[in-house]
Design a protein that fits this description.
The protein is about 40% helix and about 15% strand. About 40% of the residues are buried. The chain is of the alpha/beta class.
């Protein structure tokens, strides 16, 4: 057997966009046929290309590889003699008992190699085009969905679909992440096409008010309310974005965070938006950030919270920047922790309170309302 067969197989599987794990022997105690440094490519169906030892170790390796390919996380395992093939989680290593008569032990590292995730961009807007150009730079494959789109207009895309018909999109694409950046052109059709993909994450580039109206219309048209509620809008992290490229960067930041399993502010913004829309009918006479967010043409309040002037420096400045542009300020203002300055705060936050508040509000508006 060629112990370096794993090199050829790894290249073949990667070019075919197929997942696999590279398994490396870290240490070995005789008697065992595996030696430190031996490697093998192992697939989820149990195929082993290379050499990591005899048949006694293989069941535990294949079991661990399947788990790693499900969550994308590497693992270290130890296979040692035992009367039972029990499995124990020791924190930094999974230990498997081996009932074979060989008596040797192995430590192995299982490193999953996943195919590139696909980001589907719905729309042909300036923000959509900027996203298509940026996404491959962070290792994402890109598919474009836009009525009448031409492949020549999206040289960085792997797939260009010139129709936003739901059934066609569902039949031809599979994507864990979708960004709808239609920005006024076939918004509803784009959102329906995105929902048809049932992605893990779905972002909509639009102001809070526009998003609220369109999401309500989706539910009214028969779309699953739970699926609609998972649409994150306004899309993007709050970075003070103004240009299409900056807005695309802010949205891509959220996509990368979701891809890496990190929480983002976007779900909090969505929850605040829903809360603020509900509060409009119950307390229309009280001027608040929530009501302002629901009633204005952007996702950001155009005026400060009704606070005494002398209290503005304590409550108004940091909550607006720290919580979102869509209605989290009041809740944060009630928390003592929210008033404490943190390292890395933008210089604008240390300026004169009312000037800083206006600066932060303008920054938040431009970053999450690009539609």
């Amino acid at each position: 057997m060629n112990r370096n067969e794993w090199i050829t197989q790894a290249a073949r599987l990667q070019s075919a966009d197929q997942p696999f794990a590279l398994v490396t022997v870290l240490s070995a105690q005789a008697p065992t046929s595996g030696k430190a440094g031996d490697k093998a490519v192992v697939t989820s169906d149990g195929q082993i290309h290379g050499w990591i030892g005899g048949g006694c170790a293989q069941p535990a390796v294949i079991k661990t590889v399947r788990r790693a390919l499900l969550d994308g996380q590497p693992r270290k395992i130890r296979i040692s003699p035992s009367e039972e093939s029990a499995e124990r989680d020791l924190g930094d290593v999974l230990e498997f008992g081996m009932a074979c008569h060989s008596g040797g032990s192995l430590e192995l590292f299982v490193d999953p190699v996943m195919p590139s995730a696909t980001l589907t961009v719905v729309g042909d807007s300036p923000v959509a085009r900027a996203l298509v150009g940026l996404a491959p730079r962070v290792g994402l494959r890109v598919a474009v969905v836009a009525q009448g789109a031409q492949a020549a207009d999206f040289p960085d895309a792997d797939t260009v679909l010139d129709s936003d018909d739901e059934s066609e999109v569902r039949a031809r694409l599979a994507s864990p992440f979708v960004v709808v950046a239609t920005q006024g052109r076939r918004d509803v059709q784009g959102l329906k096409a995105a929902l048809a993909l049932q992605p893990q994450g779905l972002w909509f580039v639009a102001s809070a008010r526009k998003a609220g109206v369109l999401l309500d219309s989706l539910v009214a048209s028969g779309e699953d309310p739970a699926a609609v509620a998972r649409i994150m809008a306004p899309a993007g992290a709050i970075i003070g974005a103004q240009t299409p490229e900056e807005i695309a960067l802010s949205v891509l930041t959220s996509v990368v965070a979701a891809r890496r399993g990190r929480e983002t502010l976007v779900p909090q913004l969505q929850a605040a938006l829903v809360s603020s829309r509900a509060s409009v009918s119950s307390t229309p006479s009280v001027p608040s950030v929530e009501a302002s967010a629901a009633g204005s043409s952007s996702c950001c309040p155009t005026t400060a919270v009704s606070e005494p002037k002398e209290a503005a420096s304590e409550k108004a400045v940091v909550p607006v920047a720290a919580n979102s542009c869509c209605g989290g300020a009041k809740k944060a203002a009630a928390s003592p922790a929210a008033t404490a300055p943190k390292s890395g705060v933008a210089p604008a936050l240390t300026a004169e309170p009312h000037t800083a508040l206006a600066t932060v509000a303008a920054s938040a508006k431009s970053s999450c309302c690009g539609g």
